[in-house]
Amino acid sequence: MFFNTMKNIILLLFAVIMLSSCSQYQKVLSSDDTGKKYALADSLYAQGKYKKALKLFEQIVPVYRGKPQAERLMFLYANTFYELEDYYLSGYQFERFETSYPQSDSVEVAAYKSAKSYSELSPRYSLDQEDTYKALEKLQSYINKYPNSEKRTEANELVSELSGKIEKKDIEIANQNLKIAEYIGDYRPAIESYDNFISDHPGSVYRKDAFFGRLQAAYELAVRSVPSLVEERLITAQDYYNKFNKYYSDTDLKAEADLIAQNIAERLGEREQKS
Fold first, then answer.
1. Residue 21, Cα to own-chain centre: how many angstroms?
2. Which of 163, 165, 232, 257 lies in disulfide reach of 125, CB 3.0 to 4.6 Å?
3. How far is Cα 157 from Cα 136, in angstroms, rounded to an integer?
4. Alpha carbon distance, N-terminus to C-terminus of the chain
5. pLDDT tens digit sequence for 86-130
6. What region, left, alpha or beta, does residue 27 occupy, with left being phi > 0 and alpha being psi -120 to 50 degrees?
7. Is residue 240 part of a domain?
C-alpha cells in the first residue's frame, strides 16, 4: 500500500512538472519576448528537443537577421533541420549560412553538412538522380576547398558511393537500350550510350561491361544493315573488339568477345572472296 501510494505521488508530481513545463513553453511561444524565445530555444536545442526548439527558431530567425546573434542562430536553425532529418531544408539552410557568413568559424561544418544533406536525399539508382548530382557537386567543392579537413576521408567515401550509383544507372540505361534495339532494329542509341559511359566513367567497375556491350551492339548493327553498309560497320565492330581485348583480355567476357570477333572475321573474309 505504502509503495503504491508513493508511486502515485511521484507520477502525479511528474505530471504536474510536465504540465507546468508545457504551459511555460506555450506561454513563451505565444509571447512577444524575443529574448525569452531565444533563451528557451537555445536550452531546448541543447537538450535535443529539436521539434520544440524549431518552432521558436522559426519565429525569431527573421527578427535577429543582421544582429550579432544572427550567425550562431542561423547555424543552430540549419542544424535543427539536420538533426530532425529534414535534409531538404538543412541542405538549403546550410547553403544560406555559407553564403551569409563565409568568414565564420562554422562555415566548414556548414559546407560539409550541406553536402551530406544532399547525399542523404540521393535515391536508389533507378530513380531520378538530380539530388545525387547536387550532392556530388557539393562534396567535390568541399574537398577542393578544405583539402586538409578531418572529414575529407568520409567525403571521399561519399563521393565514391554516389558515383557508383550514377554509374549503375548509366550502365543500366545502356543495357536497356541494347535490349530495346533487339525489337526496333536500331543499335545506334545503344552504341552511343556505351560510348558516353566509357567517356564519363573512366574508372568504373562497369567499364568492362560497357566495352563488351558496345561490341555486341556494333556487331548486331553491322549484320542487320543494308549491304552497302555491312563491311564498314563490321570493321568498326572489329575495332571495338580490339579495344575490348586490349583492356579485358583476361576477363570472363573474353570467350564471348572472341566468338563475336570470329564471326566478324568470317563475314569480312566472305565479302572479300565475293569481291
1. 41
2. 165
3. 11
4. 110
5. 999 999 999 999 999 999 999 999 999 999 999 999 999 888 899
6. alpha
7. yes
Total domain count, the chain: 1
Q: How confident is the model at residue 66 (pLDDT cuts 50, 70, 90)?
A: confident
**Residues near 49 by Cβ (< 8 Å), separated by ≥ 6?**
none
Runs of H (alpha helix) within the chain: 2-29, 34-46, 50-64, 70-83, 87-100, 107-121, 130-145, 152-184, 188-200, 207-223, 227-248, 254-274
The domain of 241 spans: 185-274
Report if residue 160 sits inside a domain: no
- State residue 274's pLDDT score: 65
Given its phi and psi angles, is residue 185 left (phi above 0), alpha (psi -120 to 50 degrees) or beta?
Answer: left
Q: What percent of the chain has pLDDT over 90?
A: 78
Residues 132, 162 contacting (CB under 8 angstroms): yes
Distance CA 125, CA 175 (A): 14
The rounded radius of gyration (Å) of the Cα atoms in the chain is: 31
Instruction: Provide the grid cell at 252.
Output: 570472363
Q: Is residue 253 part of a domain?
A: yes
* Cβ(90)–Cβ(117) below 8 Å: yes
> DSSP readout, 229-272?
HHHHHHHHHHHHHHHHHHHHTTSTTHHHHHHHHHHHHHHHHHHH
> Is residue 237 a part of any domain in this protein?
yes
Q: Which three cell numbers stand for residue 34?
A: 524575443
Of 76, 135, 62, 63, whose CA–CA distance to 104 is shortest? 76
Q: Are 160 and 200 in contact (CB under 8 A)?
A: no
C-alpha cell at 249: 583480355
